[in-house]
Write a structure and sequence with these properties.
Blueprint: H1 3-8, H2 11-30, H3 36-42, H4 48-80, H5 82-100, H6 106-118, H7 122-133, H8 139-167, H9 170-191, H10 210-215, H11 221-239, H12 245-252, H13 259-288, H14 290-305, H15 314-341, H16 348-376, H17 379-400
């Protein structure tokens, strides 16, 4: 789609609708987060180390499969459109979530988490659809705004999930999650308008693997690789916390009180600051340079993750988690914006699917790292290691992509 077509496309309408859809999807994805580790503990007579380990496996299973299948879905989206991918993802994950509420052992849960990964891609396809239709001068603000949809849902989800788990049952929450994903699919099917032009298939005799052929379309393939690796590391750092956050809260509360509810609130806090800052940071990046936002976001992330490993109360943890939302608002939308601004229109779906693959790899390695470190050492080590990884990623970008400092 050329720039004139972007100007005349219904990108603002779709942005509004997909904001609502990603809001619903965000609730669905995040409302099970606060108690997934607690759910694992209910499926067997496990030690503390075993719960941490199996929690890491449960989280990682989805993302391992997602990393494998995302390029395939991205290639299909280039041929068939992003809208149909939204419907495929939401309906498939709704079925997987419903079945998770019926499991009786840890291996069934791991298998269904892997099935969820097969149908992943709702939010990434929403981002690709908006990125492919939005005029480039509005790309940062549009993607930053869209991110607040899923973030807002992720803000509400843990609180809602914590309440449901506290006053009803954990299993009930999986059924509600399935219903929400089904609703997102219906809204996408009936309200989203896509002016889709299929991307012509590339010749098969160009040599190299799929990623190499994709990178051949870019003016600066090195920058694309750097951004994809950065997506993986940022997501690795964030996700390493997920398997142990409820267990960490439980420990800080000395195993007393409404642990699931408080864990839900703690998990939701980053969404508050993310909603407030992501669109503003995106608009600032459009005017003054997205690279500046990225560099500042890394430094701020290191400063807020490190002290989380030394807190002694849930209040202090909550304040620092609130600040995490600011760093996320600087990092994730900015990486996506830089990918959009440095990608040809013909590669939009493909590059967002590869970005999802790297994000899924970060999710997988982060889940395994968090569960393993917590099992070998203690929960606070996970936060410290996250801060160090983000610092290394900052150093990598500073020297490997000097153009982003400007």
């Amino acid at each position: 789609m050329d720039e004139e077509q972007r100007q005349n496309s219904p990108w603002q309408r779709n942005l509004t609708i997909l904001w609502g859809c990603t809001f619903v999807a965000g609730i669905a994805f995040s409302e099970i987060t606060p108690f997934m580790s607690l759910y694992v503990g209910q499926l067997g007579d496990f030690t503390k180390a075993e719960v941490s380990f199996y929690s890491g496996i449960v989280y990682a299973a989805t993302f391992f499969v997602t990393a494998i299948v995302s390029p395939m879905w991205g290639a299909l989206a280039d041929r068939k459109g992003r809208k149909i991918m939204l419907i495929r993802a939401s309906m498939g994950m709704a079925a997987a979530m419903f079945l998770m509420g019926l499991v009786t052992n840890i291996w069934q849960l791991i298998a269904l988490r892997a099935l969820q990964g097969v149908f992943s891609g709702f939010i990434s396809n929403a981002q690709a659809l908006i990125a492919s239709q939005t005029p480039r001068e509005h790309a940062g603000k549009a993607l930053g705004t869209l991110v607040t949809g899923s973030t807002s849902g992720m803000l509400m989800g843990p609180i809602l999930g914590g309440i449901l788990a506290q006053f009803f049952s954990i299993r009930d929450t999986f059924f509600i999650t399935a219903a929400l994903l089904f609703i997102a699919g219906i809204l996408s099917a009936t309200l989203v308008k896509e002016q889709f032009v299929p991307v012509p298939p590339r010749p098969k005799d160009t040599g190299g693997n799929t990623l190499q052929r994709l990178l051949g379309q870019f003016a600066n393939p090195k920058l694309i690789i750097i951004l994809l690796i950065s997506t993986m590391i940022v997501q690795l750092g964030n996700t390493s916390i997920s398997p142990i956050i409820s267990l960490y809260v439980k420990e800080l509360m000395h195993n007393a009180g409404p642990v699931a509810l408080i864990a839900g609130i703690i998990a939701a806090l980053p969404g508050i600051s993310n909603i407030l800052t992501a669109p503003r940071l995106g608009a600032y990046g459009d005017k003054h340079g997205s690279g500046k936002i990225l560099v500042a976001g890394y430094l701020f992330a290191v400063l807020v993750y490190l002290p989380q490993g030394f807190v002694t109360s849930v209040v202090a943890l909550g304040v620092l988690r609130l600040f995490v939302g600011i760093s996320d608002g600087a990092l994730f939308p900015t990486i996506q914006t830089l990918l959009t601004k440095n990608s040809p229109a013909s590669a939009t779906s493909a590059i967002f699917s590869w970005n999802q693959s790297f994000q899924a790899l970060g999710n997988m390695f982060g889940s395994l790292l968090g569960g393993t470190l917590a099992g070998l050492f203690d929960y606070n080590v996970v936060f410290i290691s996250t801060a160090m990884l983000l610092l290394l990623n900052f150093i990598f970008i500073w020297f490997a992509a000097p153009q982003l400092r400007k």
